[in-house]
Design goal:
The complex is a heterodimer. Chain A is an alpha+beta fold. Chain A contains one helix and nine strands; from the N terminus they run αβββββββββ. Chain A has two domains: 32 residues; 137 residues, Immunoglobulin-like. The model of chain A has no long low-confidence stretch (mean pLDDT 94). Chain B has a six-stranded antiparallel beta sheet with strand order 1-2-6-3-4-5. In chain B, helix 1 packs across helix 4 and helix 3 packs across helix 4. The relative contact order of chain B is 0.18. The chains are: A alpha+beta, B alpha+beta. At the A-B interface, strand 3, strand 4, strand 6 and strand 7 of A face strand 4 and strand 6 of B.
């Protein structure tokens, strides 16, 4: 009846279900934790240059591909997103626009991984885009883009959740003025 | 220990194994994903995902968003890759998108990976048809079991021997 094997089995089974109940409770608690994130991105300038290679030296084969270079400013306070189930935040600034061939386009301009609550207040000035800003059609004529700040909360255990700030005003891309070095 | 007992035990073990397999497949149908659980094998998404973490995938109908983490296969290569979407361009046709991905821990985007095979040398984007799942949830460490089992086949043998013992000795 109450053999050693039975007792060991019962202890194992109970501790495994207890651990998974606790993990489930932690995972779901993250969904209802109150937070008040705030953020904004603005562009100080956009310059369009032509070139053959992007920032990662990917070859676009011809010389007239239009790359945009932007200068951004970012203000954000995401510290309220850090709770007991936040392992890290991934914060990324996104340019969004539409063209006749592609109604919705989004390109990440800059990103950052935040691991501590004390680093979650962001204030950047004169920030240049980290990734190449080039359209799928490789031209920027008549395009207006807005920028916004997005974030992804990576949990210790549980659900991946996402959020974003209000989009900025729409900025027009100028004509190409120069050749990329 | 008679034959009847051994047969009952084997039946119980088989019931458990098939039960797990059936619920896994049913879950795959529900999430629209062939393998709704994957174990992370590389360090390219550190510090979000480490080697041995388990990811829960699904494949909803809605378009893939920027910043989402996708599991995709490059045409001609078998090993699936888990990386974050950093560019998306949607066509007017529903479900038509082109995507660019990058690992959080890598310095450059994935175009080098896409173009590694000669047949893909002009490949600039991946498409939703290359995406096998989108990461929805995360459970750390537990996938280390499967990594240990593929790294040390002896462990797999021991586990099977344990199951055998249960079949023949449990009363």
């Amino acid at each position: 009846m109450n053999s050693m094997q039975n007792r060991a089995n019962a202890v194992m089974a109970f501790s495994i279900s207890a651990i998974f109940c606790l993990l489930g409770a932690i995972a779901f608690s993250a969904l209802v934790m109150p937070s008040s994130p705030a953020g904004s991105v603005g562009l100080d300038s956009i310059k369009v240059v032509t070139g053959r290679y992007d920032k990662n030296w990917v070859d676009y084969k011809t010389r007239n591909n239009e790359f945009a270079n932007t200068v951004m400013q970012i203000d954000a306070d995401l510290s309220s997103l850090f709770h007991w189930n936040t392992k890290q935040l991934v914060v990324y600034a996104v340019a969004e626009y539409s063209t006749p061939t592609h109604p919705k386009n989004q390109i990440v301009l800059w990103d950052s991984i935040i691991k501590r609550k004390s680093d979650a207040v962001i204030r950047k000035r004169g920030l240049r885009n980290k990734y190449s800003l080039i359209d799928v059609n490789k031209k920027w004529s008549n395009v207006h883009a807005n920028v916004s700040l997005h974030w992804n909360i990576v949990p210790y255990v549980g659900f991946m959740t996402y959020g974003r700030s209000q989009p900025s005003e729409a900025y027009a891309f100028p004509l190409p003025s120069g050749v990329q070095t | 220990m008679n034959l009847r007992q051994i047969l009952t035990n084997s039946l119980n073990v088989l019931m458990m194994l098939f039960g797990v397999f059936m619920s896994y497949k049913a879950w795959g149908l529900y999430t629209n994903c062939e393998s709704p659980l994957v174990v992370v094998l590389s360090e390219s998404m550190e510090p979000a995902f480490a080697r041995g973490d388990i990811l829960f995938l699904s494949n909803p109908k809605k378009p893939i968003e920027i910043g989402e983490i996708c599991v995709f296969k490059i045409p001609g290569r078998d090993i699936p890759i888990v990386h974050r979407v950093i560019d998306r361009h949607d066509s007017p046709k529903a479900g038509k998108q082109v995507l660019l991905t990058k690992g959080d821990n890598n310095n450059v985007d994935d175009r080098g990976l896409y173009q590694e095979l000669h047949r893909n040398r002009a490949m600039m984007w991946i498409e939703p048809k290359d995406v096998v799942g989108r990461v929805q949830g995360f459970l750390p460490y537990l996938g280390m079991f499967t990594i240990y089992m593929t790294d040390y086949p002896l462990l797999k043998g021991l586990l099977l021997a344990g199951v055998g013992l249960v079949v023949f000795l449990y009363e």
